[in-house]
Amino acid sequence: MNAISIKNLTKIYKLYDKPVNRLKELIFKKTLHTPFTALDDLTFSVEKGETLGIIGENGAGKSTLLKILAGTLYPSWGEIKVNGRVSALLELGSGFHPEFSGLDNIYFYGSLLGIEKGLLEEKKKEIIEFSEIGDFIHYPLKTYSSGMYVRLAFSVATAIDPDILIVDEALSVGDLHFQKKSTDRILDMKEGGKTILFCSHEMYHIARLCDRVIWLKNGRIFREGKPLELIQEYETYQLGKNNPEQTAAEESTGDSGAAALAEEGFSPAGTERPVIFIKSVTTTPTGEVLPGSDLYVNIETHATDSNTPYGIAVKIRTVTGLDILGIGTDKLPRFYGDRKVRLFFPRIPLKSGTFIFEAFVFDAEGVYWYDRKEAPPVKVPRQSIEIGIVDLPHEWIVEDQ
Length: 401
What we know:
401 residues; alpha+beta; Rossmann fold; Coagulation Factor XIII, Chain A, domain 1; 2 domains; 6-stranded mixed beta sheet; 5-stranded antiparallel beta sheet; 26% helix
């Protein structure tokens, strides 16, 4: 049985150069807008109990699709059938009132989500405990930190027992501890047989949660398939881009380098301004390497302050996000100023696949990073039927009978 069925779903926005043109168009019956097709003739279904991942670049139509399914936006045309009670995690906290207390906002926000007051009363204690707000639940929301704000919103939105849950980038809220709690709650709902539509730029979450993935591109379904296969294709596509759109996407997901953040006076470590940058990361050879070949990772750094010590580390992972190795310069003297460093892997034991070599520059204690940058992906062609990611040293020993 399908929980959601969509046929020929289309959403076209009217874009006006000036607000007054909207009124002029109504009065004079003259077209003064530019049509923008956010969703273009989508047709798909979601089975009951299935978790469907939705990926794509910014502007691909992901949020528009989820808002239509949540009932907060109307399509231009198309057929939509939703079987079951829907709860949506879209713009977390958008229905909160800053002058109300956290407790008052539980009822206020819950009512906007369509949750009955009696159910909210039953769930009140659970919501407060899950959000970890503590005594701040009695204080006005305007006194909350941004993390406390979104924790309370997530707790309210997931407190009910929906048949269908719609999630748009909601698992990146709060600190790492609360992110794990949020993920665990979504997993519990998945294991409980709930139907979930999950949209995220975090491919780890897509791979961990989803049974099937749809890749939206320019408002249309570009690809559809199993999570790991589609994620690898999507990440390879992203890595192959070299245009302003890629930079914008990286900044929106927190993957931009410290050099860009430095212009705004921020650093990933929370210091006043980053002082160490990675100018370049490359591999030798580039592009493709045969199993068992020698490989170098070439790193060039730039320091705006030659008195600041730092260390360097390299992480190897698959394009699906599986970490294979992390290795740093812990046993070497700390670096100062601009440096060129090479990490040598003799007869690197990688088997077939596409691998990412990512460099980091850390503070002297190795607690936080100043910058990070990825080398172009390295592909290792398959040369045997053996499975796996790495080829460990081994020897077959055959005993005489």
